[in-house]
What we know:
By secondary structure, this protein is an alpha/beta fold. It is 37% helix and 24% strand. The strands form three sheets. Strands 5-4-3-6-7-10 form a six-stranded mixed sheet, with helices on both faces. It has a two-stranded antiparallel sheet with strand order 1-2. α2 packs antiparallel against α3 and α4 runs parallel beside α5.
Amino acid sequence: xxxxxxxxxxxxxxxxxxxxxxxxxxxxxxxxxxxxxxxxxxxxxxxxxxxxxxxxxxxxxxxxxxxxxxxxxxxxxxxxxxxxxxxxxxxxxxxxxxxxxxxxxxxxxxxxxxxxxxxxxxxxxxxxxxxxxxxxxxxxxxxxxxxxxxxxxxxxxxxxxxxxxxxxxxxxxxxxxxxxxxxxxxxxxxxxxxxxxxxxxxxxxxxxxxxxxxxxxxxxxxxxxxxxxxxxxxxxxxxxxxxxxxxxxxxxxxxxxxxxxxxxxxxxxxxxxxx
Length: 275
């Protein structure tokens, strides 16, 4: 995988594409044709115009901010799945911009809410972090519909990093992810779990309320629900893993009681070993 999964690479790949990157002072050996003569006329100093190289990695981070991402169990230290996803997105953005890859942000719930196009300027991190800091987990979502809508809006192939709990219909989700793959995108999914969702620790009568449809709530005896829940969870995870493997998608489950930096470092180390 280019850029991101190679770790911090040294080459800035500054070239001569259409997007201006920055000025830097001329040094002996630079090509004369790259000098900005207009700026020389204003400052009496020689500066070089640098442009983003189109061969650099272009990454879009797709962040699910639907209501289910707002769940926070007692073992997560006060960090909801949404909090965890936002911090992971900021961390990924910092990592990729540090190696001068272009990164953008797309967030969605039941519709695409904002698209920040990929840029590789260091100052672009501020735009991404500012956007992330204002997000709230709310509304319902339908991942497959949103992903199908996004395919024509991301015309250039690149890396898609999806951060979501992926709750939804597996068959429809796989069709949408295959649509991305058909458009030549590489996909990495960080699937966010709260510990409660994995082992269903409830022992007493508990009232469960939908985070996406507030009117849906039920008082349930966990002794009767737990076994069926865990069986359905195992079926869901097996189908998801198989579908991602079939479409050559990296699926990275992460749990909110685990440091996100640790999860990311572990994944990067795994990718390096596989190279």
